[in-house]
Amino acid sequence: MAERRVTIGWAEGLHARPASVFVRAVTATGVPITIAKPGGNPVNAASMLGLLALGAQGGDEVILASDADNADEALDRLAKLVSEGLDELPAAA
Fold it and tell me: Confidence class of residue 86 from pLDDT cuts 50, 70 and 90?
C-alpha cells in the first residue's frame, strides 16, 4: 500500500471549497484513494460526505493511501495539492 502523510495547507481545512477541489482532483486521477487522520478510520477520498466527516482543519496531518498499482504519481500530485492549498491538481511531471 502506497501512502503519503501530508499537512493540510488550506487555512480553512478540508471544508466546502477546498473539499470540492480535492474531491474533483481525486476523481480525476482515476485511482481509488482513501484519506484518514492519523489513528482514524480511512474514508473514500472521492466522497464529499466522507471528507467533510473527517473534520480535518488547516495544519492537521492526513494520510492519503491507495493499493492501486499506479498510485504513486496520483498520491504525489494529491499530496502537493493538499500541502500547498492549491486550487487545482498540479500537472503531471
Answer: confident
CA pair distance 75, 33, nearest whole angstrom: 8
In angstroms, the Cα distances linking 31 to 35, 45, 58, 60, 75 are 13, 10, 25, 24, 9
Backbone angles phi, psi at 31, to 5 degrees: -115, 135
Active site residues: 15
pTM for this predicted structure: 0.93
Quickly count helices (H) and strands (E) in the chain.
3, 4
- Would you call 64 helix, strand, or coil by DSSP? strand
